[in-house]
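Board notes (copied after class):
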Amino acid sequence: MIALLVPELPIDFAQPLEDLGLIEAPVEPRRLPVCRFWRQAMSGNSPLLAPLANLAPYLRWAQNPNYVAVPPSPSFLENYGYAVFAGPGGLVESEALAFGILLLGPDTHYPTHRHPAAEIYVVASGEAGWRKGEEPWRRERPGAVIRHDGLVPHATRTLAEPLLAAYLWIGDLATHARIDAPK
């Protein structure tokens, strides 16, 4: 991953990183239908976007297997995906944390769900509504930092533009999120 961000990395820096396992062979990229919103999501002016643009050809987009098995709505899987930079299945394997990006298409409701890992989102582009527990919906803009502690129910709904957000998970990375049953 480091080599992808800094392709001209001098050998005296690259070798120690390679010895630590931080430079690995590229993972076969994978695209999902939600990637049709990538260009639009990248059109903002957040400082997070330029480094992400360099990674685009290497991203391996994925979806939560629980959602694939039982989609929360007929159009959800067409408008949802994430790419892991570091963590299980990422460009760099890690059991300590998961770091990547989430892309949601416009007018998409990511229903109330929960997982044991604590997470932080940093909105890179797009405004969206975010809800934690029974709190009211909050509209968050690029640059916003959103935290969800482990097992706290939370939801997101995008507006007229796609949402691109960086995420960081710590804790139980092996257990995928599950959608809460509607009340």
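Comment from the instructor: The two ends are 42 Å apart (CA to CA). Residues 11 and 17 are 10 Å apart (CA to CA).
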